[in-house]
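Tokens for chain A. Residues wanted.
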């Protein structure tokens, strides 16, 4: 994973957490859109 390649320090840790959150958000938005289209 990309996160494993980041250096082990505080700044990289914050960036890694943001990457995980944004990826989860993209997945949730995709699922929501997909479900909405199925209900049309």
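Reply:
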């Amino acid at each position: 994973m990309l996160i494993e390649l980041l250096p082990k320090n505080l700044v990289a840790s914050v960036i890694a957490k943001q990457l995980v959150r944004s990826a989860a958000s993209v997945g949730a938005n995709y699922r929501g859109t997909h479900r909405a289209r199925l209900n049309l």
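The mean pLDDT is 87. DSSP finds two helices and no strands in the chain.
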